[in-house]
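Treating backbone geometry as a discrete language has practical consequences that deserve illustration. Part of our work consisted of pairing the sequence of a single chain with a tokenised description of its backbone. We regard such an encoding as a compact summary of how the chain folds. The amino acid sequence and the backbone structure tokens for this protein are reproduced below.
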Amino acid sequence: MTYVVAEPCVNCRYTDCALVCPTEAFHLEATMLVINPETCIDCDACVPECPVEAIFPEDRVPEEWAHYTQLNAEMVASGLPTISEKLDPLC
């Protein structure tokens, strides 16, 4: 299983979650972060670090945000850079 970044991250993009990721599974998009499903080891370290509660286990993504599971994978595949440093949030 992997974790998924969903709607609450859009236009906020806190990077606290990426700082604790042991596998650098987070990738930086212009308005949000996404998680690489191939790199995520389901360690749960990122979840409590997200101040907007945008990270969910893939089997618990709220229905209205279910499309973010595929969106995370597609965005990572597009070649987004990994992120492992703190950036200023957008919100």
Remarks:
- The longest helix spans residues 67-77.
- The chain has a mean pLDDT of 96.
- Strands lie at 3-5, 26-28, 33-35, 55-57.
- The two ends are 29 Å apart (CA to CA).
